[in-house]
Write a structure and sequence with these properties.
eight-stranded mixed sheet; alpha/beta; binds guanosine-5'-diphosphate; 300 residues
């Protein structure tokens, strides 16, 4: 976790340093405040939340007068943590209940990191002593099932897959069935993320979910979002949120962008918490999201 924090700090510190520098100017002019707002917006914080943060900071500075660097840091930290939501429920539901494994569906546009996140998550769970079974419900790309199988072998999780082009729902059904038979703790279903048409997607994911629900409950629907795609990724994410009930976001590739403000805009946009962050391509590069630790990494 320490290593991941360091990686996060490395990618996000330009944002934190920029904000701290601007806020430390002697007397802040209107232009300075505009610059602060622009910096937040350019870090994908979103227009409305950026305005809110600036307004709050401005009011505080007006009351307190000139601030010491420590006070600036404390104030900024407070604002960012408040925007990110320190009290949101970010725990993943991955424990079996009612005699069934917990079922996690992983959804999102292709290339965002679904399979990688599924693999990394299963590694964390296996590391915690859980038995995990993976379902390769992205049946449209042979490479996706291959990739998941490799992850399964690497982390010690069985993988259920179907022939290429087979019905994703039947693979999901079979995976959950076998998960129940084997008495595993968690079944994770990696789904296909073709953004063909909204109805197509809805039919497909809806069917996968319905079929799983014949045997167990779907405890988590994790939407994987690539942090480097910014507002574009957010638009695509919205389509998924419209077709399935998302319970959490896995924000990947935060190691490859300084725009950590996306955490704020995505939560605001979709109304669900970021639960996991991806900080690299390796098997251990996944961390639970924590608002305070995230802000501390940004501020250095
Ligand atoms: P999928 O199509 O959504 O299943 O995406 P993949 O899991 O195949 O990932 C697409 C690419 O993104 C792969 O090259 C991954 O190694 C890479 N990737 C996934 N997560 C991360 C991350 O957190 N950081 C970085 N740097 N790369 C990632």
């Amino acid at each position: 976790l320490q290593r991941l924090r360091a990686r996060l700090a490395r990618s996000q510190s330009t944002l934190g340093q920029g904000l701290l520098n601007l806020l430390s100017r002697d007397s802040l002019t209107d232009e300075d405040w505009d610059e602060i707002e622009d910096l937040l917006i350019s870090a994908d914080v979103g227009v409305a939340p950026s305005r809110m943060i600036v307004d709050e900071l401005r009011t505080k500075v007006k009351v307190t007068g000139q601030l010491s660097p420590d006070q600036v840091r404390t104030l900024l930290r407070e604002q960012l943590v408040a925007q990110i939501g320190p009290d949101l429920q970010r725990a993943l539901h991955v424990d079996p209940h009612g005699g069934h494994p917990a079922v996690v569906m992983v959804v999102g546009v292709n290339g965002t990191g679904k399979t990688t996140t599924t693999g990394k998550l299963s590694r964390v769970l296996v590391g915690d002593g859980k038995q995990v079974l993976l379902g390769a419900a992205d049946t449209f790309r042979a490479a996706a099932a291959e990739q998941l199988t490799t992850w399964g072998e690497r982390v010690g999780a069985r993988v259920v897959r179907g022939p290429e082009g087979s019905d994703p729902a039947s693979v999901a059904f079979e995976a959950v069935k076998q998960g129940i038979q084997d008495g595993v703790d968690t079944v994770i279903i990696d789904t296909a993320g073709r953004l063909h048409t909204k109805t197509g997607l809805m039919d497909e994911l809806g069917k996968v979910k319905r079929v799983i629900e014949k045997q167990a409950t779907v405890d988590e629907v994790l939407l994987v979002l690539d942090a480097t795609t910014g507002q574009n990724g957010l638009t695509q994410a919205r389509v998924f949120a419209e077709v399935v009930n998302i319970t959490g976001i896995a924000l990947t590739k935060l190691d490859g962008t300084a725009k950590g403000g996306i955490v704020i805009s995505v939560q605001r946009e979709l109304g669900v918490p970021v639960k996991l962050v991806g900080l690299g391509e390796g098997p251990d590069d996944l961390a639970p999201f924590d608002a305070e630790a995230f802000v501390d990494a940004i501020l250095g």
